[in-house]
Amino acid sequence: MASQTMKAVNYVGPHKVKVEEVSKPKIEHPDDIIVKVTTSAICGSDLHMYEGRTAAEPGITFGHENMGIVEELGEGVTLLQKGDRVVMPFNVADGRCRNCEEGKTAFCTGVNPGFAGGAYGYVAMGPYRGGKLPRCAASSSKDGMLTFPQGQAQYIRIPYADFNALKLPPGKEHEADFILLADIFPTGWHGVEISGFQPGESIAVFGAGPVGLMAAYSAVLRGASNVFVVDRVPERLAAAAKINAIPIDFSKGDAVEQIIKANGGEVDRSVDAVGYQAVGSGGNKEEPNIVLENMIKVTRACGGLGIPGLYCNVKSYNRYLRDLIIAGRAKPSFVVSHEIGIEDAEVAYEKFDKRIDGYTKVLIHPNGGF
Description:
This protein is an alpha/beta fold. The chain has helices at residues 44-50, 98-101, 161-164, 175-178, 184-194, 210-221, 234-242, 255-263, 290-298, 318-326, 345-354; strands spanning 5-13, 16-23, 33-42, 66-73, 85-88, 139-140, 146-147, 155-158, 166-168, 202-206, 226-231, 246-249, 267-272, 299-306, 338-341, 362-365. Pfam families: ADH_N, ADH_zinc_N.
């Protein structure tokens, strides 16, 4: 008899996760599929929960960047087949509400009652064990309450699968590229898009974490004249240089002054890929407003600011970015620093959180090597 449990990365408390055995997901609605996860990823957003900055409670399974192979289908699924290789946007959307009809899948009103938006494996976005969700979108837990899918595990249930799962070419090619379609590649592209960027313009990206590097890469792909990337972590700045962006180390001088000098004036656009954990040049105290202030200073009058935050309509971009990967025009996996088995997740979280040993983007293969 097949095992009814699986391994999953669970939150224990601030700065502590543990790989534990949990119940395997089951089909709960005709529109569901079960996916055997080949690759998941640790995201900077996961660190917000890991560090104890959110209302996440012990027992939540992390993971909102997921891809794998369809193993089981609900009877209502018509566009997918068993064995299909798929990647899912981190946004969970029903494809039926007004916002989804308008392409605003990050703000779906049908999957998380009382809140516009849902996501896998993230607190308050519908992922937590015991969280109340519509029965069509949620699973039943042992205590009879409702739960939501989470991805840093060996299997995941995908609701509204025909709408949410993006088909990929079969096989193993581009695995490390395709997983980035779940979140960071579309989010980085979105940051550039909402800045109003046009080919030939200059752009400054604040933050060289995975999303910042994807924003810079997106600007390069879209024909920027100059791309500046601001950070202080050597490995991140080195990664920016590899894609012909100009690294700016803010610990060695005012970032705005460095950019204006190198660009011969203010830039046309800028993107915030840091958020509320921004720090000043001293690096010892968080200054959540400093990036926005620097973006205003470094961007020309009538230029544009891109502030993507958590709200990117992934489905607006992922199909097209997938095709750029397939065509060989884009290879976003340059940001990946480590690929691990699920048993190494605890150490990976610690090192990624501390920004040490070159941990910049970590992929997890929950069912073994890939």
